[in-house]
Amino acid sequence: MSRVVVVGAGVGGLTAAVRLARAGHAVTVFERSDHLGGKLGVYERDGFRFDTGPSLLTLPQVFTEAALDLEPLDPVLRHVFPDGTVLDSSPVHAEFLERIAAAMGDEAAHDWDRFWHRARRIWTASWRSVLRKPVTPASLAALSWRVGDLAAIAPGRTLRSLGRHYLRDPRLRMMLDRYATYTGADPRRAPAALAAVPYAELAFGGWYVPGGLGTLATVLASACASAGVRIELNTPVEHIETAAGRVTGVRLGDGSLVRTETVVSNVDALTVYRDLLPEPRRLTGLADRSLAGFVLLMGVRGETPSLAHHTVFFPSYYDSEFDTVFGSATRRARPAADPTVFVTRAADPRVHPSGCEAWFVLVNAPRHGTGWRETDWRRAGLADAYGDHVLGVLARRGLDVRDRLVFRETRTPADLAAATGAPGGAIYGTAGGLMRPVNRGAVEGLHLVGGSVHPGGGLPMVTLSAQMVADRIGPA
Ligand SMILES: Cc1cc2nc3c(=O)[nH]c(=O)nc-3n(C[C@H](O)[C@H](O)[C@H](O)COP(=O)(O)OP(=O)(O)OC[C@H]3O[C@@H](n4cnc5c(N)ncnc54)[C@H](O)[C@@H]3O)c2cc1C
């Protein structure tokens, strides 16, 4: 029986651990923190239960290691535009077209239908040629894929330009642009291939896990237990030991050495290459880093019928938000004055006391430490002041919750970085791009899973990375 060490108990690490143990390996997971799930965090207070990370599960067919009880969402998302238009997305295409026509007119519905057919081609090509296969610069260059798939994905084209080509209504353009942020990217730089994201979300639906998405970590943990995986919490891996270009073991925080020839790392690739390997190595194929997020967790009195499970409130000038949170060569990244505000409020009595609601509010935010003082999220008072600001923005967009708060907690990019080891609190690891770091590590026996490597961030992609890596390692 071969011994495999998994570093990190995020969704990628736990999924790889289950799959490898079922394939006959003796698997040990070392996790630096005192809890499982990584960014898939849960926070409980006064009878309220919050997911501190993911709130939307897509591509349920991917989660084969976790038997989940799922509830479909309709609408998947409610969009509130700056002119007051409200558009609910539907997992049934014909129904969504009717909703678009009712809210924005027939021309807009026709445009979305045309875009949808192109997005389906992109999805089909991505699923077949990219998402379940290790993609490397060499495989791209060798054009080993079907030429039709390459044409559909249109490498080199941006999501923004694809949207401008198909969609005339500025509100639909805004709606499409937002999908770039599902990988923490700027739509003006993100590849057109990300059109696969709205396709997948609407064609296969958006799902809620009763009790909250944190349940996924619990289910994966029990799958680990049944498969015989050993999990050690509060056990950071300080180094990956190598000799002659091969993995020989991992050095733990207490100085002890655990010998193994196979390490699956769920740690951000940047950290692995910079800090865990014996000599810092250049990470090839590093795409842009993902955005971080600023989160408010709020216990709220009363009910809010204007909210769907997920509601997005758009700003008047979307590009100015991207300019601000990404920064540029001449302007440092800063929190946005007029950000998009994403509110999740589950109608699930398991997550709030009766007569109340548990709100998760997320806005795009620059990574911790990427700019000057403005992006030092540890600066005294910044988190509270920005939280006040976000609630003021929400009030100006028609939803004033400030006099209904039972309590309010804040999670900044610096908090996420501290809790999960995500550099700068990047939500998704690397932002959208075809050239993410590859799953095969720089030394023999090292494999990488999780949001910072191919095929990317978000629960389904992270799960696919783990499945690909486990299958590549093969049976014991
Ligand atoms: C606010 C927020 C909202 C999100 N919303 C969604 C959403 O709605 N839908 C969706 O699909 N995705 C969403 N995501 C993204 C999703 O959470 C991530 O893509 C996914 O959970 C990342 O999993 P991972 O496998 O990369 O591991 P991570 O979650 O990054 O976990 C890595 C683990 O490794 C551990 N670790 C790090 N260094 C060491 C070390 N040296 N030794 C031992 N252990 C170590 C960490 O403590 C951590 O537990 C969201 C994320 C956030 C933060």
From TrEMBL:
Keyword Kinase applies: no
Cofactor: FAD
SUPFAM superfamilies associated with the record: FAD/NAD(P)-binding domain (SSF51905)
Pfam families: Amino_oxidase
UniProt keywords, alphabetically: Carotenoid biosynthesis, Oxidoreductase
Keyword DNA repair attributed: no
Catalyzed chemical reaction(s): all-trans-4,4'-diaponeurosporene + 2 AH2 + 2 O2 = 4,4'-diaponeurosporenal + 2 A + 3 H2O
Family (UniProt): Belongs to the carotenoid/retinoid oxidoreductase family. CrtP subfamily.
PANTHER family documented for this protein: 4,4'-DIAPONEUROSPORENE OXYGENASE, PHYTOENE DESATURASE
Protein name: 4,4'-diaponeurosporene oxygenase
